[in-house]
Amino acid sequence: MVELDKQELSRPVTAVENKDHCLDHLRAAACLMVVVIHTTSRYLVEPGREAYRLLFAGLNTFAGSAVALFIFISGVALTLRYHQKTLGFTTFLRRRMNKILPSYLFWAFFYLWMVNRGMWIKDGLSTLGAALLGFSMYHLYYIVIILQLYLLFPLLLRLHEKLPYVWLPLLFVLLGVWTEKQAVMLGPWRITDRFCLTYGGYFSLGIFAGMRWARWRELLGKLRPGLLALWVGIGSAAALQVFTQFSPRYEDLGVFGGYRYLIFAVASILYLSSAADWFDLRGWVGLNHRLERISRQSLDIYFVHPLLLVLMDRIWGRIPAAHDPVRFITTFVAVFGGAMLFASMKEKILKKVRTVKGVHCGI
User: Fold this and answer.
1) 249, 50 in Cβ contact below 8 A?
2) Distance between CA atoms of residues 199 and 264, nearest Å
3) Eight-class DSSP state of 13
4) DSSP string, 263-316
């Protein structure tokens, strides 16, 4: 084991240590997928949209594993950085929390006040708890989960190092299935999907893959054609199930029972990992640069895109109706492009602030 002191853990990560285009491709794909999910959801649940419901069921389903993919990537990235090193827990936790927690608290209360117009404030402490758990906007539950996984990562990494077997991620997957079926409530809010154990199997799989990343990529590369067929087959069956679930004309097919998300999420992680590796091996510099940018800005894109969706809904309410595919494409381009613009502007402002601060401090 390599001993790292606090100074070593707190220094910036260099490009040599941290640059992995495969992970950049995966993270960028997950970022695109999450915007697709939230852009297509309304076309599934709103009445009178039967003509294109199957199309949007397919898009929503194939993008539906975005959160599982994000969690898997986090497990891989942390393991690649800290495997076979002694972690200073306090330093590690401070570094991780400083990266995410301030932004999360800002957006949680921003959405509570601006989008929900403060109507939960009347519930007092219950509202405060709900905001901290991400109920002020539908997408924030992921951040609650990832913060918990950060807390547990040093313990989970040590456990995987002691038990480097494939059955350990399977055990965490089964534990997640059991946890998801529990009904734990905070007032009127069901908080079971805020427990990290519900998604812990994907994180465990990421740690498992990260500990043998080169072999993982090589094996999935050999299996890529079969993984593609599996991904398309399971995804198509799951999309039909989603379509019949929301269509008033058909009876719910009930494909995969209550395990549709889990089964397809694992298939997506395996195939998309192999696909990202394929793109990485092509050496397309321009594409790598663009996907690296999306990857770098993914957290800000994740936080801001629901706000842009709300704004687009208000714009669509003031102009003549458009065909659903046209409306979807326009909305997706506007939301994703606007989110990237926001992230880029924030990045430039922070660079200027840090530069001024550095000069001022004599650094």
Assistant:
1) yes
2) 14
3) P
4) HHHHHHHHHHHHHHHHHHHHT-HHHHHHHHHHHHTHHHHHHHHHHHHHHHHHHH
Q: Measure the N-to-C terminal CA separation of the chain; round to a whole number of Å.
A: 34
Nearest one of 64, 50, 116, 74 to 239, comparing CA atoms:
64
DSSP 252: -
Written as six digits, the tokens of 279 are 């793109």
**Does the pLDDT of residue 120 top 60, yes or no?**
no
Say if residue 267's pLDDT is above 80.
yes
Name all contacts of 159-164 with Cβ < 8 Å and 24+ positions apart.
160/79, 160/204, 160/207, 160/208, 160/211, 161/83, 161/84, 161/211, 164/208, 164/211
Question: Residues 6 or more apart from 269 whose CB is under 8 A from it?
Answer: 65, 68, 69, 72, 202, 205
Q: Give the mean pLDDT of the chain.
A: 86
Does the reported pTM lie above 0.85?
Answer: yes
DSSP assignment string, 135-195: TTSTTTHHHHHHHHHHHHHHHHHHHHHH---THHHHHHHHHHHHHHT---EETTEE-GGGS
- Reduced to 3 states (helix: H, G, I; strand: E, B; else coil), residue 342 is helix
* pLDDT value, residue 356: 58
State the number of CA atoms in the 13 A half-sphere of 34 facing the CB: 27
Tokens of residue 127, six digits:
């509202």
Structure token pair of residue 214: 């080169």
CA distance 268 to 319: 38
From residue 207, give the alpha-carbon distance in Å to each of 20, 200, 212, 267: 16, 11, 9, 17
Question: Contact, 80 vs 20, CB < 8 A?
Answer: yes
Query: Residues 63-81: pLDDT tens digits?
Result: 999 999 999 999 999 999 9
DSSP 85: B
- Residues 53 and 247: beta-carbon distance below 8 Å: yes
β partners of residue 246? none
Residue type, 176: G
